[in-house]
Amino acid sequence: MAKSKKQHRTVGGRLYEILAREIISGKMRPGQRLVEDDIGKRFKASRTPVREVLNKLGKDDLVELVPHRGGYVKGLTAKDIEHVPSHPSPPLSGTGPTTCRPSCLTCSSGTVAGARQIAKTQRGRQG
Length: 127
What we know:
Blueprint: H1 5-8, H2 11-25, E1 33-34, H3 36-43, H4 47-59, E2 63-66, E3 70-73, H5 78-82, H6 109-126
Antiparallel strand pairs: 1-3, 2-3
Helix pairs in contact: 2-4, 3-4
């Protein structure tokens, strides 16, 4: 019996998808610190995939990386949500082309509308 795509995903691919979804959905708040050790314990992942995922989230503008301090969730704006790419960004090392694709890249218009509302709410809290 063939394995599903989900079973073929790497730890880093799954971790990226989960964290990206939590950031975009608002479950993780802007400014929230992302500690490598905490993430590793939560997902039972070693340091290398956690570090790769944080770097990838930084490249995708979901996390701000501060040298010697770690990563912090960035606040999303409506403009950020409008410019969510319709294709996956380059995968993490050792992952296939679709393994690092956050769910937001294939989301429905209702999900995008909800994400825009979250971004609007976050802007109101920051100002």
